[in-house]
Each structure stands twice: as C-alpha cells, then as structure tokens.
User: Fold this.
Amino acid sequence: MKRFAAAAAAVIIVTSAGVLAPLPTARAVPVAAEDALYQAYGRVFPDPHGCLRGMPGASPWAKGNVCAVQFLQWQEVLDGLGYLEERFDGLIDVVNLREAFANDPDFMADELQSAGLPREDLTRDKRDLYAIKITDASSTIPEAQRRHFAYSLSIHGIERAGIEGGIRAIEDLVTWAACERDAVASPACANEDVSPQKPKRILDAFDPPEGPTAGEVLGKGVVYFVLSNPDGWARGEVTDGGVFFQRYNGNGMDGNRDWPSIGYAQPEYTPGSEPETRGYAKYLLKERARTAAGRFAGAIDLHGMVTSHSFSFTLLGAGQRDYGKNHATVQTAITTWRDAEERLTWSPLVARNESCPGPLPEPFFGGTHGPMCTDLWGTVWDTIQYQVTGSFGDWMDSPMGLDAVGIDNEMAYSHLAPNTVFDPGIEQLHVDGNKGLIYAQIASLLDEKQVRFEPKGRIGYVFDPARLRDGGAAAVASPLAGLNVQDAIEHLAPNGLETFDFDVLGSTDGVYNGGMTIHATFTNARGISTDTLTTEGFVVEYCGPPDHPGDEEGCREVARYWNQANTYAQAGARVDLNAPKPGPYRISADDARLTPTAIEISFSRGEATPAGQAPFDVSRMDFFADLSRYAAEGKELRPVTVDQILADSAALGSLDSLVVAGAYMPGFGAGEDARYDGADRRRYTAALRSFAAGGGALILTDAALTGLELLEPKIKPGSVGRGYFYAGWMDFDDGEGPTYERHPLAAGVNKPGASEGFAELDGTLYDNRHQTYEPGPVGYYISPNGSSNASCTVDRCDSPNWVVDEKIWRDAGGTIAARTFMHTVTEPPDEGDAPSRAGVSLGDLKLGKGTIRIAGALLPDATEQHYHPFGLSSYAVTYTGYQIFENAVAWRRAAPVAPPKVLPVKTRAPLPATGVGSSAALVALLAGLALAAGAWTRRGARA
Assistant:
C-alpha cells in the first residue's frame, strides 16, 4: 500500500467539463469549511475516490470532486461539521457537551471531556465531547414521536472505518435532505442528481433504489452520531506530528469494555468508570427520556479489525430480546447484507456470497483468502469467534441503555494495521460500507412494523413458579453529615523502582471517601510509552491492619490497572476503588518502569465506579409470556401447572404442542422446596407420554432433556448429559452434511448472509455452528481471553448445554437436526485435555401418533454465581434460538373428526348463514371437514 504524505500531496479536482486539474496543496484530507472550497470540492468531506468518479475501478458511490488523501483529522472534522451546521441550519446540530450542559445539574459531576492524551510533560490533552444530531426542525411530526437512532464512531481509535464512513453519512443525509427542498442548496444537488423532483432514496445501491428518502429520514427520525474516542484519535493525527492511533482513551482504558449492561460483567473493567462513557451515556439517556416511545429504534457501534474471510461483520447485540425486537434485528441484518452485496462489490477485494471467500491468499495481512465476502451477520461469537462484556453495542441494545436494536460492526483493514497508512481503495470501502450499515438500519426501522407470532397449532408450556430475585443493595453507605472528601494527592515518581506510600483518611480525620481514583501518566512521546508494553501491572496495595484476626500481616493488593493487552503502547493508566478503607496504602514497585511517572490520586463522595447490586426478578418463564404478546387473540401460549396435569389427565387435550423448558418437573426433588414425590413424577410422566403418543408434540429444552430417560425406555439411564461450553450452541450437521434443507427443525436457520461459527474439537470439525443463547445476560462467565478461549481450553466456560448419546438416540428411532460438543467440567485441567462428550442436541423422536422434540440449549436458568452488578435477564435467546423454537412448535395434532350427532328435528338449531341450505350441502360440508382433518393429519406427520 502507498502511504500518502499529507503535507506534500496535491489535490486533484474533477471540473464541470470532466477535466482533471490540480489545486494548490490543501489540508490533510482535504475538508471544505468555506464557500469557495465547498463549491470546488463539491463536498465538505470528499471521498477517497472523489476525483475518480466514473472511472474504471473506482467506487460508483464516491462523492465530491477531489480525492481525500489522509484520514479525517479532529479539528478538520469540527470545522467541516460547523460549516455544515451554518449552511444547513435546522437540519444539523453540532453539540459540544461541555458547553451545552455546563449548567445542567444532571451533568455537574462530569467534566464532559476526554480522559486526556498524555503529553511529554506528563500533563493531559483533554478534548471536549461532541455529538452530532441531525433531524428536520421544521418537520410537522413532533420530535418526541420521531424514531431515534445513534451511531458511535471509532470507539477504538485505531479503527478508523467508523469515523471515515460516519462523518460522510452525516453529510449525505443533510445534503440530500436539503436538495429535496432546493435543487441549488449544494453543489452535490447537481453532481448527484438530487432535487425536489428526484429525491434521494438512501438504499441507493439497490436497483432500483429502495428505502425512505433522506428528507423522510430527517422528517420522521432523529439521528445522533458520537465521536467516541477523542484521545485515541489524537495520537494518530499525522498533521500534528502523530504517528499511531490508539485503541484506548488517555487513561489506557478500553471504552468498549466500560459500558454497563445487564448480566455478567467482568469486574476488572470497572464498568462506567471513564469520562467518555459517563458523558455520552447521560446525554443519550437524556435524549431517550424525551422520546414518546421511551426508547431508541436502532443503534450501531462502528468498529474495525485487521482482516478475516469477510470484509464486514454485522454483530447482533446480546440481551433479552423479545420476539418483535428479534424480528426487527434480523430484518436489519439481512438488509445490511443485501446492501453490502451491491455497494461493495466494485472492489476486487470482495465478492458476492456465491463466490467468497475466494482462492487467492489475502494480499495484505495474510491468514485468510480473497476475495473476501462482503458482509456476514450473526452473534458476536459466530462471527468473530468470541464475546465480551461492557460493549457499547450491548448497552445500546439493553433496556438500561437505549433499548434499541443494538448492533456492532467490524470492518477489515482498520486496526493495528494499516493504522495511519492511508490507502484510498480501502478507505473508500470503509466509507461505502459504513454508510450502507447506517442506511440499512434506518431504512429497516424508520417505520414501526407490526409483527405477529402465528403458530400452526395451540401451544402450552409447563409453568415453573420459581423465580430468581434480588432486591438490590447499595455498595457504599451514605456519607456521614458534615464530613469532607479528602484532598487530592499529586506525586511525581522518578521511576518504578521504589514504592509510593500515601494515606487514605477517615471519619476520625473529618473525612469520608466514597471512592478513590488513581491516574498514572507515564513518560511518553506523542502519547506512546514503553512502560505498558512490559509492566505486569500498576498495583495498589493496602498496608493497614488485617481484616480479620489471624489474617496475614503486611501489604496486600486491593486494586490494579487492567491492561487488556501489552500491545498498544498507551501512556496512561487508571485504578478505581470504592469505599477505600482508611489507613496506609502504597503503589508497589515495578522494575520494568524506569522512567518518571506522574501520579494523581483523587477522592469522591460517591462511588468511583458503579457498584452494588441492582435489583432483578427473573425467570425463563418470561420468554413465553413475552412471546404471547405477539400472538393473535386466542393463540397465546398457555401456561399449564404440574398440579393441573396431575389433577386432570385431559388437561393437555386442547394443545398441539407442549414445551417443558428447564426443570423436567418443577417442584420435584429432595430440597426443602420440593412438592412432589416419585409417585407424582410417574403420573406426570405418564400424562406427558400420553399427550405425545396421542398426537401432540412434546418439546424438551435444556435440563428437561433428562425426562427422556423416563418417557422412552429405549433412552437408557446415563444417555442424557449436561456439559459446558462458551455459550449455548448447536452444529447443524448430522454426520452426513448440513441439515438446513433436510430437517424441519433446522429450516430457516441458515438465513441469507448469516455467519456460521467453526472449530475443530476433539478431531471433529464443527463448521455449521449457530449460537442459540447468549451467556452474559443470564449471568454465565465470559472469558477476557477473547478468541483464545473460544474452544474453552484456557479459561472457565460454564454455559450449560445438554445432549443425548447419538447411538442410543438413533437406535431409538430419533432423527438429528444438530449435534453439540461440550466439556463436562467448567475449568480446564492443568495438564491434558478437559473431559468432554458430544451428542444430539436437536432432533425429534416419534412416539405413537406424535413426537418428542429436543433442544439442548435454549432457555437455561439464570445464574448468580458471577459478578452481575446491573442485574440479570430472564432469557437471552438468539435469532437461531427463536428459529429453533418456531420450528419445534410448528405442529398440529392429528385429531379424528367425531361423527355428527343426529338431533331431533324439533330441537335442531338453524344452520348458520353460510349458504348451506340443503341436506346435500350439509353432506358436502361434512365431507369437506373430513378432508381438512385428513390434510392436518398429513401435515402433522410431515412436521
């Protein structure tokens, strides 16, 4: 790739006559922030292929008359956005959060600035936080009733794709909306053929273009863009001497691990600790509170990666997503994929779905082959092979955040490499791809769509009254009246060879400290330091008396800087501690740190980072109640209690399908809450078996698979087993190839553009994997080791999966839609491989006139075993899990039609007004009913 020297680059302009002509040397990008340049460039933010429009090999979607020759620079972006705001007043508002909310009591405790990139003099270069809001102030639709969207641009500063595409998407939407009003509002109106007579539909890569016009988007929607990581951006500003963008903020903290969300949270990340997180969260939540819907419609956090087999990965947020939200999420993902298939295939680096990935070794970074696919979508684990906690996308998706259709995206060639190396072809792909993501989501969600769950038959579920509850608890006691917060402590450590001792005061000193925060700024050049490349950690120790009699004396660790990877050469570190105990402390020695370090210790009345325990009240039964809200009247899922089944053998007679999720017989067991004994379980099992044998579909999920050994004598004791893996999952292969087209329970799983996870486990290749539930929202552990632990070999994996022995299942007559591999222990052993087993996780087994269907990982119980300060979810079914459930309950029992009862003439009721008026017509009607019953019988047998 050729690196363009910004200071010496000449800018080429396409004149109205189509002649290429040089302009004087321009600023880095270049950006037009005045009228003359705007007319010349044709855009405020022209594209990398702007000067190549219409030429062979160039993007057909490129905008502007000149070519961008460097990454967008911070001040240029602010200048350009300011010019757009001035020119298109009423369509765009550039919000400086520090200035806008300086006197707002909700923001008084926040600086509304970045953490600050470390300078060579060990001070910090802090930048104000900005959000860009675009909407039509003149719209007749009240703003509160419009659909709201949010887009985070490059929260990892090394991943420039989001900034490059997102800033230009802002200009597109504002410019096109202005051109719809006035054909001379911008030079782009003529260049891009947009006018009141020819408005611009935002899915312009489709043929013909689809979706709303830009004017409709801004009239019916409010779209926010946030500049998520000013510090990481600043370190790579080549026009200001920068040499390398940075993943983290100035504190050396990963902003995409800092967002609170429901479920398991990795405690080392101290969620909600960073000023960028707190500032943007408060701003976006304030905007959410103003909406009539009480939520945003959609949101995307735009990222980058080095490379993979797909240029773009659209990652679905992890959370408790109900049926309607799941449907909207899937439709958004498919629209995104469709757009990428059209918008990105101008480049030889990518190819359509039927031709990717190609046979050629990937030319830039290796590790895969090209041409790459355009876009693949799915869960985070199925796409990029791992999951995280604290991501912005999950917060966007969460009800404690924006409650939107939350998505992350990863785009290739935007990471450690190429970093500050600007390649026009790659950056044009980033621009095109990120615009497509934004436009596809807005087009999919701008109008509310009615979603219905329309099952084939009547569905019941065995109701489990048990719920997991916690009333919540504050982490820090209320401060005593009249006590002050301790003054800050500043220290310049000459190196890390000696400890730094300091004292934390307490109530006897007239002080109360709810939280303590330690900032360290290491010796650096342009924010780059070697200290975090080698150090084992920046460790804080408490040296006071032991907590309990008999405990070991001396200093012991109470907090440390979490250095996610010794890769990024950050020059800052941060440590937070809530309710620090009064007494002596020290920052321990580190012989890998030989240069001066500035240390600032500050104290706060409130917590340094959110802690305590949020209340929750959860049960997997909520899945069925939530699903019922989308069913037509009379088609709601019916709860059936164990008591009802024991009391009335006909209690299940009106159902076509019965789901037993989790506990096979709620209330049975040896514990103090047990209500039923062995005799009850035998009667209960007989009722379930009779239901299936009589023509019903009995669906067993998760731990309920243990009931197979009671229901079917051919399933011998020990055939059903529980194991653990990274998440709930199934591999849609029965040993003879993929089952998507061959088994009804696998139908619809392999959706257009959907990604499949893959791994070789115990000598078997699982390359048709789809995740069925997310671990984090229901409390299961997610390893910080990322993809290193995708096969559960280096860290804990405790998401439960259930399987049946494959040979026994086949011998019993069962069919296979999917299989699953799992470990039978949660922790990998110190030596050797963890014990494991594989088996059938999805399939059906004929029983009499009906069937037993199994789904071994779908609705596990939530767990309190791990850190979950923001509560737990009731369920976290993925789009694949929903598809499996719909397939499993797609059943109509075969019921014989009873012979008509002959009534005396004098009591015969009048026939309904159906046009049937003779005995011959009555016979024909009854015959039709019999045929219909026969059709249902055949349909049930096929299902």
Q: What stands out?
A: The two ends are 55 Å apart (CA to CA). DSSP finds 20 helices and 39 strands in the chain.
